[in-house]
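User: I'm curious whether this sequence folds into something compact or stays loose and floppy. Could you predict its structure so I can see for myself?
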Amino acid sequence: MVRDIQLIEPPAPRNRFYHLAGLGLLALNSWRHRLRGYRTPRPWFSRDAGRILEYDRAVFDNWHRHIADYLEFDLELTGRHVVEIGPGSDLGTGLLWLASGAASYTGLDAHKLVGPKTRSLHEDIARLIAGADAELLERLLDAVCRLHAGEDGPLRYRVLARFNLAKLDLDGFDLVVSHSALEHVAKIDRTIEQLSERVTERAHIIAEIDLQTHTRWIRDHDPLNIYRYRRQTWRSFAFSGTPNRVRPDSYFDALEKQGWTDLRIYPQRVLPMEYVKKVEPTLDQRFRGDPEHLAWLSIVVCASRAGERSWKGKDE
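Assistant: Here's the prediction. I'll summarize afterward.
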C-alpha cells in the first residue's frame, strides 16, 4: 500500500556531541550557500537523461499512488493544469504530466535551477518518455522548444523571489504537487494563502514533505538535529532554502484556515518511539510534548477544494 510505513533506526543518540556537530555543520552550510548560492536540492548531480528520468518517474509514480489512495478513484488528467512547488533542476516531472494528458504544467521555484543549458537535457528526456510514439514526441519537443524560447506553452517555469506567489502571473491550477520542497518554504502560511487564491474549485494538493534533518552525514546519525536549536540560533544560520522546521499540525492548520477540506496527513518514514523518548528532552522546548508526531520523518499531505473533494467517490 501507499501508506506502508518505513521504520528508520539511527545509531544510539549522542545528544551533546550531535548538538555541537550540528552547530558546526549549520555554520558551514550557511557559509557555503551564502557564498555559492543554492545549487541543487538533490543529493546527487547528473546530466544523464536516463538517470534523471528514472528519478522523476519514481516521484511521478508516487504522486499517482497517493492520489489514487486518497480519492479512491483514478483522477482524470485530461484538461488539468498542474503546478509543482519546487521542481528542482529539471522539468522531467512536467513532461511526464503532459505525456499523461495534462493540459499544462507549471514549475514554481525560489531559485533559478532550470536555464538555457537544460534544453538538450529536456529534449533527451522527452525522447525517452515518448519512445516510438512520434506524435507524443512532437508534442513534448514543441513544449520544450516553447519553454526555452520564453513562450507560455504547456510547459512553464517561474522563479519567484522569496517564493512570493503574489507575483505569479498564472492561476487556474487544478492539481498541486510537491516532493520534498514545502519544508524549504519560509512563510508557509502566506504561501498556502496565496496558492489557494490561484487554484480552481476542483483542485487537490498532494505533497510529500521531508521533516528530517537535511545535511548529509548528520541526517542519518541524528535525524532530529534541526529541532535541537532555539529559534534565534537557527535564524542566525538561515539562508534561502533552510528547512522551515514546520511540523505536521501547522501544515494542517494552514490548509484548513484557507478552506481546504478532506485533509489527510500520514507518515512515510518514522523513528522508533524508544529513540524519540531519548532525544526529545534535548530538543528545543517548542518541539517537545508530542513524541508521536515527532517520530514522523516524512509525511504526505492531501487536501481538496470544494469540487471532487470526497475520496469516497465522484457521486457522493
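Summary: The mean pLDDT is 92. The two ends are 24 Å apart (CA to CA).
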